[in-house]
Amino acid sequence: MNDPRTVAAQVRMRLPTLTPLEAKVAEHILAQKDIDASMSLRDVAVGSGVSDAMVVKVAKKLGFAGFREFRQGLMDYYRSDTAGLYSEISPQDTAGQIIQKVFRTSMQALEETFAILDLEAFERAADYLHRAKQRDFYGVGGSAQIARDVAHKFLRIGLRVSVFDDAHMMMMSAALLGPEDVAVVFSHSGKTTAVLEPLELARKNGARTIAVTNYDDSPTARIADLVLCSTAQNSPLLGENATARIAQLNILDALFVATAQRDRKAAEANMERTMRAVASKRKP
After folding, report:
1. Taking every annotated instance into account, which residue ranges of this chain make up the domain SIS (predicted)?
2. Are 195 and 212 in contact (CB under 8 A)?
C-alpha cells in the first residue's frame, strides 16, 4: 500500500469479510486518528477488549503483514491531505458548514476511489462496452439511477443500453445474453440478490460481466469478470451510499469517455446527431 490514500479505503472495503468481533477491532483501530509510533499492540488490544493475537490476526486479514505495518499505514494516512477532508456533521453546524462538510466528504471519496481504482479493469471494461452487441445494465434503488444516467450518456454517442430495475426483467434479459454481450451490475453493497442472480445467469451464458460496487470482496465482485470499486467513509447522517454514488458516477463518466475514444469520430458524429434531435425541445 504505497499510496497513503488507499489505507483507510482498503480497511473499509474488507470490513464485510470480518467477523463481528474482528470488525469491532478494525473499527476501533481506524478511529484512532491520533495514532503514532508510541501506540503499542497491547494498547490497541486493551482498548478493543481482545487479545494481542486477535489484533495481529485482524491486521493480516486486512492485508497488512502485521500490526506494525497496519499502524504505520494509518499514521501515513492520517497525515495525508485526503484524511483531513472528512468531518462529522453536528447538530450545531451552520448552513455554510454543512455545505463545506458535504462537499469535502465527496471530495475525499473521489480522492480515495481514484487511488484504489484498477486501471487495467477500467481499460478492459471500456473495450467490452465498445465491442458489445448488447449492453444490459442491472440495478435497484439508487443504483438504478446511476445505471440510467450512464445509459443516457452512451445513447448520446450511439451506443444503445437497456436498463433493468425489476428482478423478473433482469432474469429475462440475462437469459438472452451471449458471448457478444455485456452485463453491468450496479450494487453498493455487492450483496443485492436481485442483481446477483441475473449476473450469475449472464456469465453462465457467456456474456462479459462488470460489477460497480463499494466492496471488492462482495458476492457480486467475486462473480463478475471485472470489478470497478468506489469507496466512501460512512457518516451517521449522510450514510455511505450517498457519497459512494458520487464516486461511482465519476467512474462511469470516465468510462463513458474512454469508451467513446475507442471510435471518437463515430462518437462525435452521433453526439451531433442526437443533440440536433433534441434541439427543438429547448426554448430559444
Report:
1. 125-265
2. no
